Amino acid sequence: MTPRAGTGTDADPDARWPALLAHAAFFLLLGASLARFLTRHPGEARTPWIIALSAALAGLYAVGPVLGTRLTPRRLTWLGVLVVVWMVLVLLAPSFAWCAVPLFYTGLRVLPLRAALALVSLLTLFVVTAQLRLAPGFDPNLLLAPPAVAALATAVFVSMQRQTARQRELIDDLLHARRELAATERREGTLAERQRLAMEIHDSLAQGLSSQQMLLQAAERSWDTDPALARHHVRTAGSIAERNLAEARRFVHDLAPADLAEGGGLEAALHALAARETAQSHGRTTVRCHVEGAAATPLPDRVQSALLRIAQGALANVREHAHASAAALTLTHLDDRVVLDIADNGDGFDTTRPAPRPPGGVRGHGLPAIRARVRQLGGTLTVESAPGEGTVLSAAVPLLPDTPPAKDRT
Q1: CA distances (Å), origin 359, targets 30, 65, 188, 273, 350
Q2: What does the pLDDT profile of the chain (410 residues) look like in tens digits?
Q3: d(Cα 62, Cα 391) in Å, to the nearest integer?
Q4: Are residues 136 and 22 both part of a single domain?
Q5: Measuring CA to CA, how many Å separate 18 from each of 22, 24, 113, 161?
Q6: Domain containing 364 — which CATH number?
Q7: Helices (H), 201-264
Q8: For 193, what's the count of Cα atoms within 13 Å in the CB-facing half-sphere?
Q9: Three-class secondary structure of residue 392 per DSSP
Q10: Most buried one in 132, 325, 338, 362, CB count within 10 A?
Q11: What pLDDT score was predicted for residue 392?
Q12: 156 contacts 22 by C-beta, under 8 angstroms
């Protein structure tokens, strides 16, 4: 990385203090040089010129920060006049040569690097020439000291520029990485929220609407032949619509499922779900619920919600596709996990040949949603089925923290 001078480093808070230090050093050196001249050469003819040029040089230098940090023709003109006035002062009084060190820094800040190095070399050569010309004899110190000081000042400045450029590049990279990370997190959050919405809609609203559609179709078929049965179907569809409305409100507010909100915990919600599925099937499918064991501690809300949604999704597939006459929900509490089994005696399907719409059992969007819910809880999902032999779905959720998820077994 090649550093550049004249890029407005004074705007950087980290580079501001070296600039202030250089300004202070210039005025101190200028005042010291003027005091030394007036002390050693009082009443000379050149004294008024020295005082006037010193005041002009101080005024010109003070104007520099007002001109800004951008490399403009006006700023280049200012730098040229500043250097010329200083050269005249050095010719008249060699002690003003030490003001070259802050001028090195000024040139390096204003000009591009190559032009600044050329200016530093010119100023150094001028200082050496003026000092040697005015010295009573040859002094090696006057020949070697100014280039050494100039080289040191330039090396320090270039090193600071490189370090500042690297820090600025690193900060830019970090900001870019932060923006990329934030964008990635937003995308992942959006996808996760979409998946959650899809699962919630499928396991609650979509199932309720499907049941309403089936009941209203049955009511239409029996409207003329059996008005009482048709009205029963309509009333049942109305109760489902009411429950769907409650689910939708809780869904919008991200609350627990309606069955859990009614109290009684997961066991009561599963019993209510089994009874409701049996009633809605009008005797075609009998759903029973069993609870084995007792939880040592209450299950977390997210585990209860997920298991209830899994049961709803599995029973919806049993109702719509399995053509089963019986199904069973079994909730088993173990020491380190809780297991939910959903079994039916329906058509079943070949688990070794998955298809978008197999003839029975768990299928469609329901199984991916169930898998996703189980994985979110760090659990395992097992699906056992065969054509004509029904389907058994088992979701095991660990209760111990930091349990790594296992792979599904189908």
Answers
A1: 97, 82, 34, 24, 9
A2: 444 445 444 445 555 666 777 778 888 888 888 888 888 877 788 888 888 988 998 888 888 777 776 778 888 888 888 888 888 888 888 778 778 878 887 888 778 888 888 888 888 887 787 777 666 666 676 677 777 877 787 787 777 778 878 888 888 888 888 888 877 877 776 676 677 667 667 666 777 787 788 888 888 888 888 888 888 888 888 887 877 777 777 666 555 566 776 667 889 889 988 988 888 777 788 999 999 988 778 888 888 888 988 898 888 888 877 888 999 999 999 888 999 999 999 888 888 775 444 433 444 456 887 888 888 888 999 999 988 889 999 999 998 654 444 444 55
A3: 89
A4: yes
A5: 6, 10, 18, 11
A6: 3.30.565.10
A7: 207-222, 227-252, 258-261
A8: 9
A9: strand
A10: 362
A11: 93
A12: no
Q: The tokens of 333 are what?
A: 């509490």
Q: Are 390 and 344 in contact (CB under 8 A)?
A: yes
Residue 265 falls within a domain, yes or no? no
From residue 103, give the alpha-carbon distance in Å to each of 29, 33, 93, 207, 357. Answer: 11, 15, 17, 82, 82
**Tokens standing for residue 241:** 């619509």
Fill in the DSSP letter of residue 224.
Answer: T
Beta strands in 163-231 (DSSP E): none
- Looking at the structure of the chain, the number of domains it has is 2
Place of tokens 């050496």: 128
How far lies 238's CA from each of 216, 269, 285, 300, in Å?
10, 20, 21, 32
For the beta carbon of residue 60, count every other beta carbon within 10 angstroms: 17
Provide the residue type at 254 as one letter: D
Residue 328 lies in a domain: yes
Q: How many CA atoms lie within 13 A of 12 on its CB side?
A: 17
Strands (E), 166-321: 286-292
Whether residue 56 lies inside any domain: the answer is yes
Distance CA 85, CA 92 (A): 11
Residues 143 and 289 in one domain: no
Give the domain-ending residue among 178, 206, 223: 178
